[in-house]
Every structure is written in structure tokens, then in C-alpha cells.
Amino acid sequence: KNVRALLQACTNDTANSGNWYFKISSKRMKSKEVQVIPWILNDSNFTKSTSQKLDPSKTVFVGALHGMLNAEGLAKVMNDLFDGVIYAGIDTDKYKYPIGSGRVTFNNPRSYMRAVSAAFIEIKTDKFTKKVTKLDANRTLYPN
After folding, report:
1. Are 55 and 101 found together in one domain?
2. What tens digit of pLDDT does each residue of 33-88 get?
3. Which one, 52, 93, 97, 133, has least CB within 10 Å?
């Protein structure tokens, strides 16, 4: 209900990218358009197979993710680069909105090591390019 009301108050840039914008003003600023990125709750987790067990020792932390990247998209990018992805999850806040980080689990140690060794990758899509996505050994087990 609230999301619908917010989107109805937004302008939609259908000519270019279909992005949503909301006008905001304050005492310091007359009027500024800020981008609103709707998030579908089911987009936070992607599992290739429900029968496969997730191994924390083959999981990488991924930071500096763009807000438009969902778990399935993250899994595809990482699988294209390193192969063997069985799970991708986007970390969310208490309202289930993405916070810009996530986790990716591989089904083999070689893919995991290749991802950790890469340290940084560049993700290019039609809607955005994100250059500093940090890959690191998993910091915590699946928080969401």
C-alpha cells in the first residue's frame, strides 16, 4: 500500500531507463529529484538447487553492490566469471531492503578460490555499471 502510494507520487522516466524519481525539498535545497528503486522481496535469495547443501567455507562476501542487482543477477554474473555458483543472497536491512552487500556460495573450492583471488570485478548491465565490487572470504554465515 505505502509502496504503491510512493510510486504514484514519483515520475517514471519511461523514455530512457524506466527509473522512478521522487522530488524532495528541504530548507537547504529547493527541489531535488532522488531515484527510488523498488525491491521485490523474493529477489533477495537465489538457489540453483534446493537439494544442494550450502557450505560456508565456499562462500564469499560481495560488497559495494548496486541497488538494482538482485540475487539471481548476482548469481549469473558470478557463475559466468567463476563457475559453480549454487547460491546468491543479497543482504537486507530490517525492512528487507538491500544494503549493498551479499553472499555467493560455490559448489567447489576452485571456483571459491578464483573469486577470492579476483578481489574486485566490474558488473556492467543495461541500467548500470558498478566497478568496485569487493570479493572477500565470507565474513559471517548467511545473515538473512
Report:
1. yes
2. 999 998 999 999 999 987 888 999 999 999 999 989 999 999 999 999 999 999 99
3. 93
